[in-house]
Amino acid sequence: MTVIAIIGATALLLMYIWLLSAIVASYLSERKGYGEKLGLAFGLLLTVLGPIIWLIWPAKENSKWKNLGPVGRGKADKERVAAAEAERARQRQA
Q: CB-hemisphere CA count at 13 Å for 24?
C-alpha cells in the first residue's frame, strides 16, 4: 500500500506543477497583450516550458507589460501609464 500512496503523492505534485505552469503562462501572455487563451495553451501543452517561452516572447506595443510592468496595477500605476503614453507621444513627434 505504501507504493501506491507514494505514486499518488507524486501524481498530485506533478498535476499541481502542470496547473501552476498553465496559470503563469496564461498570466504572462495576457500581460504581454496576446490574450489568456494562447498562454493557457502553451502552459498546458508545454508544461514547464510554457512560462519560460512567455518570459522570452516580446510584448506588444501597448500591452500592460510595456505600460505597467510585469506585475503592476492600481491607482498609482494609472499615473505611470499616463506618463508612459505621454513619453511615447513625445518620441513619435520628435
A: 16
